[in-house]
Amino acid sequence: MTEFFNQISRRKFILTAGVSASAVLLKGCLGNPPEAGGGSSTQPAAQPVANLSADQQPEITKAKLGYIPIVESAPLIIAKEKGFFAKYGMTDVDLSKQASWGSARDNVEIGSAGGGIDGGQWQMPMPHLITEGKITKGNKPIPMYVLAQLITHGNGIAIANKHQGKGISLQLAGAKSLFSQLKSSTPFTAAFTFPHVNQDLWIRYWLAAGGIDPDADVKLLTVPAAQTVANMKTGTMDAFSTGDPWPYRLVTDKIGFMAALTAEIWKNHPEEYFAMRGDWVDQHPKATKALLKGIMEAQQWLDNFENRKEAAQILAGRNYFGLSSPEILADPFQGKYDMGDGRKIDDKSMAAYYWKDSKGSVSYPYQSHDLWFITENVRWGFLPQDYIANGAAKAKELIKKVNREDIWREAAKELGVPAADIPTNTSRGVEEFFDGIKFDPEKPEEYLKSLKIKKVSV
């Protein structure tokens, strides 16, 4: 067993398979239990079937995709419900609601033939870690392919209401004394639902940027979704990574407030991804592109803000998110956030985007973004430093094996996506964060050197 997996075990990661339906609203890595049937009971909306040439007819019409009921999963659900999968020949796509990210990991290990899943929605860099056997049973490598980015934005850092007015916001300079005070008694406790990926990394970056060492100054926990609300209400948890539609409930129920949106931490940042088992893709290359075309068309549909009211109604349904009202999604989908601390945001550029944002393509899986997630894993000691040595040669080799942006390009061309909307470079270039730090994918070691708080000695 690797040290990486030992770390997860020590953190006592808990898989949840039977949690109550009251947890369905938790988002940004906060999932809910699977339900019988998994997907919607409604029939897909009628769509004209694409006139597929013989070389585009999928080898198989069936695929089983896992998802967590959060806004990142919207392209999969809309592709199913609006008939976009069927339009390209994938008439039997089964969307399987996962109890947790650990459950999704377990289910992709066994594949659909064993009662699991072929792929679906993932936090990063889970596909790379599964490929390397870092988080699988017995550390068995299971090759996976990253095929598309699903979304940007739609996440944030939630804080318990007991900390209102104590200086906890995007910038933490005014709250350092609070963290120091809590450290000597009951440490500030922040939670996420799977270690070493998106939500863990957002919390860590935010804390470290404010001069708070996430490994020394606070207590970080892996918490099952079902326990999150109770822990926040009882005061046993001070913060957790969350996002749409949960901020609405946090604020209106007076449970907590939002210190920051991830759109503020890193504008137009990569969020969650669509990835499949490598063996499934290798056996079904045409079906893979058919799935991608359905997802791409769903992403375009979602980025028409006039469609978002309907999208909220579909997602809120009992068989998907199980929300009490689609209105819980409506405002965030338009970039409207009541942060719960007196601050209100009304800015469409801060909303979730699925197809295109102000920096260009959202759907295209830039390999430079994969490198940032891996570099952050090195930063916090989750992966060995040799992944980014010698110009990140080891990381880049892994990324080229896992990130199949070439398949995305092929599918986009078959779909008729304009050439201007198909990136010509696997790197989006230099990225900048709210604290002024820049990540140059050509110089990951320099990025690490520029960071004051880290575990790796660079």
Automatic annotation (TrEMBL):
Keyword terms: Cell inner membrane, Cell membrane, Ion transport, Membrane, Signal, Transport
Predominant place of localization: membrane
GO biological process: monoatomic ion transport
Location within or outside the cell: Cell inner membrane
GO CC annotations, alphabetized: plasma membrane
Gene3D superfamilies: Periplasmic binding protein-like II
InterPro entries documented for this protein: NrtA/CpmA_ABC-bd_dom, TAT_signal
Coiled coil: none
Pfam families for this protein: NMT1_2
Transmembrane domains' residue ranges: none
PANTHER family with a match to the protein in the record: ALIPHATIC SULFONATES-BINDING PROTEIN-RELATED, NITRATE_NITRITE BINDING PROTEIN NRTA
Family: Belongs to the CmpA/NrtA family.
UniProt name for this protein: Bicarbonate transport system substrate-binding protein
Originating organism: Richelia sinica FACHB-800
